[in-house]
Amino acid sequence: MNNDSGIKVKITPEAYARLICYIEAVESEISGLGEVELKDGNIIITSVTTLPQMCSAASTDIKDDEFAKWLEDYVKAGGDPSKLRLWWHSHYEMGTFLSAGTDVPTITDILGTTGADWFIVIVGNVKHEFLVNVEIFSPVRFTIKAQLELMVPISEELRAEVAEEVAKNVEEEKSMLTKFGVDFPYGIYPRSTPSPLSDTPTGFVKVSKKRRKKWMQSRTQD
Ligand SMILES: [Zn+2]
To answer: Domain containing 108: what range?
Structure first.
């Protein structure tokens, strides 16, 4: 089952840059795994890697014995196999789809037997197009179509600098709650709006900055 879920799979800038480099490093397909973490309800790809493989224009074949050795080295180096929840591959210059003959059986047969209850599958290409699926294996097998979202870290320094610039350049129109329970910033209002500033019985009333200021002063004096 495929549905446009609105679900986003986030990726760190480091992992995204590395993924692009892998895809652009060969003039063929290429594939690999990656680490995925769940944090505050977000699915985040934190790293990507390649495995020993045979690449051609139309396929990538992971070498089984070398994959076992790779996994052993990964664990020895402190890797956590439960984080290996991304299988990615590139279609080089072709579109990003899951090929029924190769990709779908790979997901079902290989990843389905790893024991993981869910996996992220990405198909990319040199145009930086990405198909992103959340493949669920348990309790039932289904696919959720997702979007890849690049995480952009925002420093406190940048936030402070922007806040300072905004304070200098941007004047916010402060609305105020009158005794009528209606906001009256300056502007044009239909006469039906209960404005204490208006002496026009019908039509529109213009509340100028000057008029509003005068009115506010009069209110303060009350
Ligand atoms: Zn493919």
So the answer is: 4-150
Question: Ligand 1 centre from 59 Cα, in Å?
Answer: 7
CA–centroid distance, 56 to ligand 1, in Å, is 11
Rounded to whole angstroms, the Cα distance separating 60 from 79 reads 24
Dist. CA 46 → ligand 1 center (Å): 22
Report residue 6: phi and psi, to 5°.
Answer: 80, 5
Q: Same domain for 127 and 40? A: yes
Size of the chain, expressed as the number of residues it contains: 222
Per-residue model confidence as pLDDT tens for the chain (222 residues): 444 678 999 999 999 999 999 999 999 889 899 999 999 989 999 999 998 777 666 667 766 677 788 888 999 999 998 899 999 999 999 999 988 888 888 877 666 566 788 999 999 999 999 999 999 888 888 899 999 999 998 999 999 999 999 999 987 655 544 444 455 555 655 555 555 555 544 455 566 677 667 766 766 655
The reply to whether 15 and 90 lie within a common domain is: yes
Domain assignment of residue 121, yes or no: yes
Q: Are residues 115 and 25 in the same domain?
A: yes
pTM of the model: 0.70
Q: Which value, to the nearest 10 degrees, does the dihedral of the CA atoms of residues 15, 94, 110, 6 take?
A: 60
Closest CA to 44 of 188, 170, 146, 181: 146
- Taking the centre of ligand 1 as the mean of its atom positions, its distance from the CA of residue 49, in whole angstroms, is 17
